TrEMBL record:
CDD domains: AdoMet_MTases (cd02440)
Domain of life: Bacteria
Protein name, per record: Class I SAM-dependent methyltransferase
Record carries keyword Disulfide bond: no
Transmembrane domains' residue ranges: none
Keywords associated with the record: Methyltransferase, Transferase
All residue ranges annotated as the Methyltransferase domain in the record: 47-143
One protein family per Pfam: Methyltransf_25
Keyword Transferase: yes
Species name: Paractinoplanes globisporus
GO molecular function: methyltransferase activity
Length: 272
């Protein structure tokens, strides 16, 4: 186990953790549907790799029951401790959260598991194939590996918006400079093959549409969370970022009812 915190694109701060909780709630139905699709049942041993604020651990705990064990792993030690405390306070005493860097060790702690799950984890990791291989090794015979990840290329508004495109460029360029893959979700079958998992048993695509007037908050919050990395990697200056955010706000205010698409959430799973 380790409590190190390697380089990460987004802020580690309370406002970012709340953004992650809100994002998780957006995708709760899509993730719950896949947990049911693979037949997650009472008593199953579960791992949420890169669990963040624990929203998916809660979904797992409700399905597997109080006698089971739901383990979360996150590289952020402070967030891991806070997540475990909140889950226990909500009555999910079967949950534990371990501070651990999945890129630094060859094995995953606590396995094997009947379900190994990761959402929006591989997106951030240059070592995504190696980490996926480790996750697969932690799956018990008869268990499942289930992964969901973003394809950010689908973010947009109709008619197209230059302001939204510029905000998107800041996001894509910063993530790219940090070694992230903004299309990780679309490459899941390839990643499964490269990691030795094999062809997925199934795949899934979930999307979200909402008015530009409200959807732009998702984009601006990511831009602000990325700001330290944007500045550190020379993607843009602080003045350029603030100008882009002001343009985005003004454009969305002028055209609040235009349809805006979120990133697609793509899933793939495999039974061992």
């Amino acid at each position: 186990m380790t409590t190190t915190t390697p380089e990460y694109s987004l802020r580690r701060a309370p406002e970012e953790y709340e953004r992650l909780r809100a994002q998780a709630r957006v995708w709760e139905a899509a993730t719950g549907r896949l947990l049911d699709r693979i037949g997650l049942a009472a008593g199953a041993r579960c791992l949420d790799a890169g669990c963040g604020p624990g929203e998916t651990m809660r979904l797992m705990a409700l399905r597997v029951g109080p006698a089971a064990r739901v383990t979360g792993i996150d590289v952020d030690a402070a967030l891991a401790a806070d997540t475990e405390h909140m889950l226990h306070a909500a009555g999910h005493r079967q949950c534990r959260v371990i501070a651990h860097d999945l890129t630094a060790y060859e094995s995953v702690p606590g396995g094997p598991y009947d379900l190994v799950f990761a959402r929006l984890l591989l997106f951030h990791l240059p070592e995504r194939v190696a980490v996926l291989r480790r996750l697969w090794q932690a799956v018990a015979p008869g268990g499942h590996l289930l992964v969901q990840d973003y394809d950010l290329e689908t973010v947009g508004v109709l008619p197209p918006s230059a302001a939204l495109d510029e905000a998107g460029r800041l996001i894509f360029d910063t993530f790219g400079a940090m070694g992230c893959d903004v299309r990780a979700g679309a490459t899941l079958p390839t990643l499964f093959a490269q990691a030795g998992v094999g062809e997925p048993d199934g795949t899934d695509v979930a999307g979200r549409l909402e008015p530009y007037g409200t959807g732009r908050h998702m984009v601006s919050s990511v831009v602000r969370s990325l700001l330290p990395a944007t500045l550190a990697r020379g993607v843009a200056t602080a003045a350029q970022v603030e100008a882009a955010l002001a343009d985005l706000e003004a454009d969305a205010t002028r055209h609040p009812d235009r349809p805006m698409t979120w990133p697609l959430m793509m899933g793939a799973w495999k039974r061992k």
